[in-house]
Design goal:
Length: 473
């Protein structure tokens, strides 16, 4: 009895000493974790204040975060929603991300197992010749107490990993939606370019017929005839190229939908989208956003969650250096087949206190390595935040530049159309050469082609801006 009391006192004193040891050994590590989080928060606030000026912030940040990429196009391209939904259902890359989320969710269940007691049942039997069979049965219950919250840290890390993976899924969905929208708009722009090139070829073919007739009547020279034929051949070559480019753009868009049967639904939705208003009539909102929208980006949030995850794993790794206390209970029974489950069992209750004595510095090295991983997660978060801020700045700069380009190109197209009409009238009067007319026609078509491309660049950049600012799905 005295030995039992002495043992309990010894165990209690050891546990108290280990508790103080835990505080001392973990203080520096956990303190550093708090510095990392505080530095991350401070850097985040500084960046968003620099990258998003006050004139581009708004108070109703909840409204901003509720906006979705698809809402930018619902009025002008209602069929885009159907295309996006098909991509979300069948895109192979997104399905892999979804499976990854399910895997880390399964790991979460595994991570909590150490916090619960475990039970094992064993039944053995022996048969001796000319004697009754002998059976042994045993039930063992064991439970390691989570004195230092080590298992709780591991479980917390698993929970944070699930949350980060959920943000990865949201980021993948948003990226896919942006890709579908941008490639659909690019296909629409390619369709307009193809139509424009067909118009150019028709005009040049008509010019060629006129010049041939004038050449036969002696009103045009052989040089005029060759010039018209050269321009027409170049236009047909470019038309052939644009036709193949259109097919490649379409195949590239269809790859986003995975192996969706014969693509009948995709083709139907795509045809409906191409039959809607032209790309120049698409109206996208570039409303101002609050600074919080940048930090609400799913990739930024996932990186921040992974800092906290690595912090929890670092804490658990250092706690591996501390003693562990476990309780086990055993029930044993032996006898014949008729009495093995009925006879009085023998119970045993044990309490074990174990502490790592010497493992060649393995546990300490593992803890220090985990601490470095936590530092790496912090710097990855900073890199992600800097990239997000740069994406916002680049997209905002492009928005301003493309708006100015579009304004100048519209002025240039108006002037080119007027000049083309004047040269056509003067050519019929014999006042200008055919080469001058061909040049003005080429200028008008080239200017209109550049205008379509700039319109596409502007709309694509607005999608990129919405994605950079963390618009939801």
């Amino acid at each position: 009895m005295n030995k039992t009391i002495l043992s309990l006192v010894l165990i209690s004193s050891l546990l108290g000493g280990c508790a103080s040891l835990s505080d001392a050994s973990l203080a520096r590590t956990l303190g550093q974790d708090r510095v990392w989080k505080q530095e991350a928060t401070d850097a985040q606030q500084l960046l968003v204040s620099q990258k998003l000026p006050a004139g581009q912030q708004r108070e109703d940040s909840e409204t901003a975060s509720a906006e979705a990429l698809l809402q930018l196009l619902e009025a002008s391209h209602p069929q885009m929603t159907a295309l996006v939904q098909l991509a979300l259902d069948y895109n192979p890359s997104l399905q892999q991300t979804l499976i990854s989320l399910k895997l880390v969710s399964a790991d979460l269940v595994t991570s909590t197992a150490d916090q619960r007691p475990s039970a094992d049942l064993a039944i053995d039997g022996n048969r001796v010749e000319d004697s009754e069979s002998s059976y042994n049965s045993s039930v063992t219950l064991s439970w390691q107490l989570d004195l230092w919250h080590k298992f709780a840290d591991v479980s917390k890390a698993a929970q944070l990993n699930v949350l980060a993976s959920e943000q990865d899924l949201v980021a993948a969905q948003a990226t896919l939606i942006a890709s579908v929208i941008k490639q659909s708009l690019a296909l629409k722009a390619a369709d307009q370019q193809l139509e424009l090139e067909q118009q150019r070829s028709q005009v040049l073919a008509s010019n060629q017929q006129i010049i041939v007739a004038r050449y036969k009547s002696g009103l045009s020279s052989l040089e005029d005839l060759h010039a018209s034929r050269t321009a027409y051949a170049n236009a047909m070559a470019n038309l052939t190229k644009l036709q193949e480019d259109w097919q490649q753009d379409k195949r590239s868009l269809l790859t986003l939908f995975g192996s969706h049967g014969d693509f009948s639904k995709v083709e139907q939705a795509l045809s409906a989208m191409l039959a809607t208003a032209s790309i120049s009539e698409v109206a996208l909102s570039t409303a101002s956003f609050s600074a919080e929208t940048l930090t609400a980006r799913p990739d930024v949030r996932a990186a921040l969650l992974r800092i906290e995850r690595e912090d929890a794993l670092t804490s658990a790794a250092y706690k591996e250096l501390l003693p562990s206390f476990s309780i086990s209970a055993g029930l044993n029974s032996a006898g014949g087949a008729s009495s093995v489950l009925m006879q009085d069992p023998l119970w045993a209750l044990l309490a074990n206190l174990t502490a790592p004595l010497y493992q060649g510095g393995q546990l300490k090295a593992a803890a220090e390595r985990q601490q470095l991983q936590a530092q790496s997660a912090y710097w990855f978060y900073m890199e992600t935040l800097l990239s997000a801020a740069q994406e916002v700045e680049d997209a905002q700069g492009q928005e301003s530049s493309l708006q100015r380009q579009l304004s100048f190109q519209r002025q240039a197209l108006s002037s080119a159309q007027t000049s083309e009409k004047n040269y056509q009238a003067r050519y019929r009067q014999g006042l200008v050469d055919i080469l001058d007319l061909l040049q003005t026609q080429q200028t008008r078509f080239d200017t209109e082609s550049n205008l379509i491309q700039t319109q596409l660049n502007l709309l694509s950049n607005r999608i990129d801006l919405g994605l950079a600012l963390g618009l939801g799905i």
